[in-house]
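<context>
A single protein, sequence plus fold
<entry> Chain with its tokenised backbone below
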Amino acid sequence: MPAPRTRWGWHSLTEQWADAVVADARIGRGALVLDVGAGTGALTTPLLRHGARVIAIELHPVRARALRERFGPTVTVVVADAADLRLPTRPFRVVANPPFGVSAALLRRLVAPGSRLVRADVVVPWHTARRWVRGQAPGAARWERTFSARLGRPLPRHAFSPPPPNGVALLVLERRTGAVNRKGRAQ
């Protein structure tokens, strides 16, 4: 049986790289931010330092309990599967390093009709980022009217513990200015 990290596809960012990812995301004080696949809080800590209101989503029960103990009431910890996540009904941001096995499902959920996502900075496998940036991801004809996709900061293998077996990228999804819904209303 593989070790838990392998089975869950979890590769934690080092403190230095977590700080860099959060700094690049330019989180404003008071912003509602989802840390999907929060793990042990590598991204949660710098998000709090930047003044974010953090909802940490973690499916692994032991890590979720550790997050609650570490951050107390300053962070809302939700035990949920990233692929089946209920999104906030008000504008929100995502800064996340989810298990790679749920990356595609999470991204599809974030850009689904009705999503109030403003911007997402998500660590994903390189091949996933490449498909989204090229407009080859599922439903691209629909979501590209509302969201743009681009590559963020390069992330080397040594930015993670344990290092992932293949290339990793930071994918940035951002709501387009003036995007309208099917009823012609600004989103």
The chain has a mean pLDDT of 90. DSSP finds seven helices and nine strands in the chain. Residues 14-150 form a domain with the Rossmann fold fold (CATH 3.40.50.150).
